[in-house]
Design a protein that fits this description.
This protein starts with a helix and ends with a strand. By secondary structure, it is mainly alpha-helical.
């Protein structure tokens, strides 16, 4: 045991020193190479990496204490929560676009939950009420986007998934349109089955969002159960349920309702089953969860296995053989064998695609283009990660230093810190081989609960040891964290505080009507921006959809012939740029997936003035069509 304690202490010391050193290097090296934009962007990580170790060392010997309020006032806080919840619904109902006041109301709601955790002693009935409020907060944020707007599209994958559900409901078959998803259509089958059984009277994509929201509502209680298995303190578990309700990746995939979105919940269930000592029932549950992930979204299992492999390696380094192993070699062998067997015998096409991605050359362009196009805008939209990293570092340091915290909790906090290199926006996403071919940015979906556990421990630790002025400052920091988490352009592209060079994540009814009119009336291609093209790929007139091509030298639009329509989303153009395909070699009839796309803003007068050569045949406040 003494040897293990020594390893924890060495790691603790390495993080204290290494965090500050890496922060200084991360800012100074880009400056030396003349990349001031990267240095500026790195500051959102550098500041908490310096402040967290310093503050922790100053506070580490302080005694824990909480200023609690008389229990007779407790129900005032949940009552106020439900009042503000009603206000948030009213703001969604009476505003076409979510106003900034909505983000402020959400922040107040989260702070009221925090007050219930910090200011009152825990009790079973209060725990249930806090978990219910945390789930309600998460649903407010998820459904406040994807059920609020006419067609929420996130990263455009929603077009395809809702189309698959439509095929299952109307045709009752899995046809060639499913493509690679023929190997794992369970998400679409689940949504289609619920749609049919419940006789839903709504669009297929709305039904998909409704079902996904109900699944995500179980994540806060799941995070609470997981935290209770790791920590003896009830307040830490309740904080985990609260923090997960506005964590960026949870909101992102909760809103998107992709086929892999339910893996967020299944991943929590898998880790919970692995935490139990091996019994026949626990083993069966772990096997069932693993097979569920493989069959439900088989592309997710490599990410899950990487996460579990890191936990296993950290256990081997830090945990005695006699201790309970969360992930053991028998489980890893089974999971890898099950994955490979499913890939090779059920989904050969998918297996070939994955191998092709690994062998392919890196994309020509980097993933995070906004880093170079608008670094200040990008920086602002990363700021919510600063307090998360601050609390995470403190939680990791606390776990390593305190003997009463279990080995499993220490390992999970260490793994959470390691995975920030991949799940937080940073240098790794600038590496095109990782960001493009391996979709490394997806790691955030599979490690969010590890990070939330460490963040919750960190917040609890620093709050408990702080004097009253710093306690107040931490609550203010929490409010800033919530406000930035729900108002950044990654989550709130409908009305962010600061916009990035990207598209709005929803379509209006008028836009969709304009797309359908063009598709139904065109005798040639419907030449349009990236979003419109993605929509048309999943319609009866998908063969007419084509990316609008631009000659970057002459700044002219390119067509295959005079019967092609040019569709411009002028409503979107008034707020954001439109994304077109670049071609220096004339019109490309069948562009490849690696074709270069470029954003064009409304101030590009030469490009937009070229539309004067065409006749406008359709016009609305959102759409204009030319021939």
């Amino acid at each position: 045991m003494g040897n293990l304690t020594n390893r924890y202490y060495k790691t603790y010391s390495a993080i204290l020193i290494g965090s500050c050193a890496l922060a200084i290097l991360g800012v100074s090296l880009p400056l030396l190479f003349g990349q001031a934009n990267l240095a500026m962007l790195g500051s959102y990580l550098a500041i908490p990496m310096i402040l967290a170790p310093i503050l922790y060392v100053r506070q580490k010997n302080n005694k824990d204490y909480f200023s609690e309020i008389d229990s007779k006032y407790y129900y005032l806080f949940p009552a106020l929560f439900f009042v503000f919840f009603a206000i948030s619904i009213a703001l969604l109902y009476f505003n076409a676009i979510r106003p900034y006041s909505y983000y402020a109301v959400i922040t107040v709601m989260a702070t009221l939950i925090l007050a219930q955790i910090l200011f009152f002693p825990t009790a079973r009935s209060r725990t249930v009420l806090i978990l219910f409020q945390s789930s309600l907060l998460l649903l407010d944020l998820i459904w406040g986007v994807n059920l609020n707007y006419f067609f929420s599209i996130e990263r455009t994958d929603s077009f395809f998934h809702s189309w698959m559900i439509q095929i299952l409901v109307e045709e009752g078959t899995i046809n060639e349109s499913f493509d690679l998803y023929r190997a794992f259509p369970l998400w679409h089958i689940l949504c289609a089955a619920i749609y049919k059984i419940s006789a839903m009277d709504m669009s297929y994509y709305k039904a998909m969002y409704l079902i996904n929201g109900l699944i995500f509502a179980a994540i806060p209680p799941g995070a609470y159960i997981l935290a209770r298995k790791l920590f003896t303190e009830e307040k830490i578990a309740l904080l985990a349920a609260l923090f997960v309700s506005f964590y960026p990746d949870v909101l992102k995939y909760g809103i998107a309702a992709l086929a892999r979105s339910p893996i967020s919940f299944l991943g929590i269930l898998l880790v919970i089953t692995l935490l139990y000592h091996r019994s026949f029932a626990a083993t069966l549950m772990a096997i069932a969860m693993t097979i569920s992930i493989i069959v439900f979204h088989t592309v997710s299992i490599p990410f899950v296995l990487v996460v579990l492999a890191v936990l296993y390696l950290l256990q081997r380094i830090y945990v005695a053989i006699s201790e309970h192993q969360t992930v053991d070699i028998d489980y890893m062998a089974f999971a890898v064998a099950a994955m490979l067997a499913y890939w090779m015998y059920i989904s050969l096409d998918l297996f070939a695609t994955l191998i092709g991605n690994i062998m392919a050359s890196a994309p020509d362009e980097i993933t995070a283009t906004g880093v170079f196009l608008a670094p200040l805008n990008e920086l602002f939209n990363y700021l919510h990660y600063s307090p998360l990293l601050f609390f995470l570092l403190i939680g990791t340091l606390e776990s390593l230093r305190k003997d009463h915290i279990s080995h499993t909790a220490k390992v999970i906090c260490l793994a959470a810190l390691l995975f920030t290199a991949f799940s937080f926006p940073g240098p790794s996403l600038l590496i095109t081989k990782l960001g493009g071919n391996f979709n490394i940015d997806r790691f955030g979906e599979y490690v969010f609960f590890l990070i939330v556990l460490a963040v919750s421990l960190g917040f609890y630790t620093i709050y408990a040891r702080s004097k009253r002025p710093l306690k107040s400052a931490l609550i203010v920091l929490f409010m800033i964290l919530v406000f930035l988490s729900v108002s950044n352009d990654f989550i709130a592209s409908d009305n962010p505080l600061v916009k990035r060079p990207f598209y709005t994540f929803y379509l209006t009814e008028e836009e969709v009507n304009g797309f359908d009119h063009a598709g139904n009336t065109s005798k040639g291609f419907v030449m349009s921006d990236f979003i419109t093209y993605r929509y048309m790929e999943t319609t009866p007139y998908r063969e007419r959809g084509h990316m609008l091509e631009v000659d970057p030298n002459s700044l002219d639009f390119l067509r295959s012939g005079p019967s092609d329509l040019i569709l411009i989303r002028k409503g979107e153009l008034g707020e954001r740029p439109l994304r077109f395909l670049i071609s220096e070699e004339g019109f490309i009839k069948r562009p490849s997936m690696s074709s270069v796309l470029e954003y064009y803003y409304s101030d590009n007068e030469q490009l937009w003035s070229s539309l004067e050569e065409y006749n406008r045949i359709y016009d609305s406040s959102s759409i204009a069509t030319y021939i």
